[in-house]
């Protein structure tokens, strides 16, 4: 089973860099058998990253009215999104929900797809995650390792 973990976001827009920051954490752990990638915000480029994977885990910042640092997990594997992502504000031209459904329509969606949204506090220009988003990363990493059965660093 090939697994790809994609961190979506722009490192230069504060909390929008949550996805790439999570991928950095996983890369430092040296995970075996998992492909790690960063998509800076072009949702159509995410489609190429999914090709050939049997499982994909996508991590993106969101603005859904939750407390900053809150994590929402959605399994989008088997059925079309029914507005679950409509409440997520996005800095992307094409939304993540649209990209997922396009991949599904084109037959390019892996059999298992998990989406993690991290509630952002700040999308302004500048490097660095806010305190609540930074604090959410260890638990998010644990959950992702559990999802892809990569519980041990190599």
Overview features:
154 residues, alpha/beta, Rossmann fold, 5-stranded mixed beta sheet, 4 helices, 5 strands, 31% helix
Describe what this molecule looks like in 3D.
There is one protein chain. The chain is an alpha/beta fold. The chain has 4 helices and 5 strands; from the N terminus they run E-H-E-H-E-E-H-E-H. The chain has a single domain, classed as Rossmann fold. It has a 5-stranded mixed sheet with strand order 2-1-3-5-4, sandwiched between helices. Strand 1, helix 1 and strand 2 (34-39) form a beta-alpha-beta unit. The radius of gyration is 14 Å and the shape is globular.
Short description:
The protein is of the alpha/beta class and 154 residues long.
Please count the beta strands (DSSP E, at least 2 residues each).
Answer: 5
Largest sheet: 5 strands, mixed
The CATH superfamily appears as HybD-like
**Name of the top-level CATH class:** Alpha Beta
Fill in the CATH topology: Rossmann fold
Task: Enumerate how many helices there are, as a single number.
Answer: 4
Q: What is the overall shape?
A: globular
Query: Into how many domains do the coordinates divide?
Result: 1
Furnish the topology, listing elements before pairings.
Blueprint: E1 3-8, H1 18-29, E2 34-39, H2 43-50, E3 55-62, E4 71-75, H3 96-105, E5 112-119, H4 131-147
Parallel strand pairs: 1-2, 1-3, 3-5
Antiparallel strand pairs: 4-5
Helix pairs in contact: 1-4, 2-3
């Amino acid at each position: 089973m090939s697994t790809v973990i994609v961190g979506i976001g722009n490192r230069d827009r504060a909390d929008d860099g949550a996805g790439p920051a999570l991928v950095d954490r996983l890369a430092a752990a040296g995970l075996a058998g998992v492909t790690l990638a960063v998509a800076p915000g072009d949702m159509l480029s995410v489609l190429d990253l999914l090709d050939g994977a049997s499982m994909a885990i996508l991590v993106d910042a969101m603005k859904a009215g939750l407390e900053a640092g809150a994590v929402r997990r959605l399994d989008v594997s088997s059925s079309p999104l029914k507005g679950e992502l409509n409440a997520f504000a996005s800095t992307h031209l094409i939304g993540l929900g649209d990209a997922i459904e396009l991949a599904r329509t084109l037959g390019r969606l892996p059999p298992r797809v998990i989406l993690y949204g991290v509630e952002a506090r700040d999308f302004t220009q500048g490097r660095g995650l806010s305190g609540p988003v930074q604090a959410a990363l260890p638990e998010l990493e644990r959950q992702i390792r559990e999802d892809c059965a990569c519980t041990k660093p190599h």
